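User: Here's a chain of 543 residues. Predict its fold as tokens.
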Amino acid sequence: MTEIKALSARVKTALTKKVEDHNEKYGDDPRKRATLGMLGAVFKRGIGAYRTNPGSVRPSVSSEDQWAYARVNAFLYALKNLKFRGGKFDLDLLPRAHPLSSKKSFKGLYDDLNFTIPKGAKEEAKRGLEWRKEYGRGGTSVGVNSARYIANNTTAGAEKVRHIAKYFPRHEVDKRAEGWRQGEDGYPSNGRIAWALWGGEAGKVWSQKLVRAMNKRDEKAQSAKELIRRKQLLRKENSEYRTNRFRSEEVKDILYKEHDRFVSNWEVVLKEVYFDLLQTQDMKIFQLLNRYAPEELGTNGIINQAIDRNMDKWKAAIYDYYIAIANDFAYYEVDLLLPDLSKEINKVSIEKAKRDKDDILTQGFFLRLVDPSKFPLSNLRSNNDATAYISSLIDEMIPNMARTSKSRFQNAYLKSLDEAIKLNYTGSRLQNYVADQVRKVLSKKNLTRALTIARTETNKVANYGRTVGAKSTGLLYTKEWISQRDGVVRDAHIILDGTEIDENSLFDYDGMKLDYPGDSSLGATPDMTVNCRCFLNYNEKRI
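Assistant: Prediction complete.
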């Protein structure tokens, strides 16, 4: 085929517009997304076919550009509809996830999903069509077409489901208007009719659930491709580099400082969370001390029960933070083990802590150098093993914290009550004295306690996240215990420092087993895990 030189500026502009228009409608689906490079290649092939095979050109076609644009439009049709009008062509240019792509494809991406349109959505669509016919209002022609599609089809295509799902978030506000509910003036309102045309509440639940499921699979497919790319880049490096790049003391020092700085950012966030929780708990205790006389039988028990009930609420308050920490460090470890190789170890960026908390929970502190959707690791929120493990960590910790809280209260309560009795206080005077003394004792230690908890839990979850990240790479590796190596490292951790074991083995100190520094899930005692600042260094194994 005749070699085609670079596209003209005019053609590039026209193709760019086609890409933008197409992706605005269909680009959310990885099977259908177009790129300028893709359409440019199709255009050049159209020019080549016009020049080398003029017999195939229709008489109505007057120029090679016209023929090339026709080929581009036919290709876009195949992208949009997942099939060609006529003969197949340019299959190697189709997205990898496209069912007709000749590339090694992730076939069956949505095969396990149920695209059957639910009965409730079909009934709502029919109701919307009847209302619109009766009242002559509500919805648009697009909504009418959507209703006919829902009513007349058994299943829906993936792009149609995405299209339907997009309607509902924009129109939730319509529910507030008069006439939305039966019995109100103006029922059914224009908004209620339009809502029905799109399948109503049943259509909303069905379509949005499917979109979430499809997005997870898209993310997984993209992650898999990025994982392959990064592994291929790493394999180009020689064996000595790959197995020794994290073994020098200089590099270990860099990695420790980076880990510590990273952990410190999360400590600041988690300390504030725990301090607020402890303060809220203490306020409840003080309220009960003001309500029940200290000398009354059962007052101590009432407050202990209140502490238990309060602690039950803590899991929901801290779960998102734990998942975010684990996720952040998992991404970080993957980026270390499978880098782009365009950056050095000490150039990894860790963002500052002074940001909105919602943003921190979503984005973390580790500045990913690639699009998160293309990172070779799915968000741990969709990882069942990770979410179950994080839940178990919290379930293990909360009873221990409850026991500490009750013990601190008990000691302060009994001591202050004994003092009040010795001072011959009675009635309200005794009650106020006990409440004030307990308040002083508990409030004084909350900040210190919050900091200790934050340090312990952050490093524990961080090291767990790094373990998940390392496993996700698919590399064979060893894990090495690294301590801070300063004057305050405990003896046990000095002994473990530099210990290198197989990826699936456990660290052992005096009979205590740990998968990673800070791990208490296998029975390690608090003196082994509390305030632990150690981390794991991963080294690729020689094969």
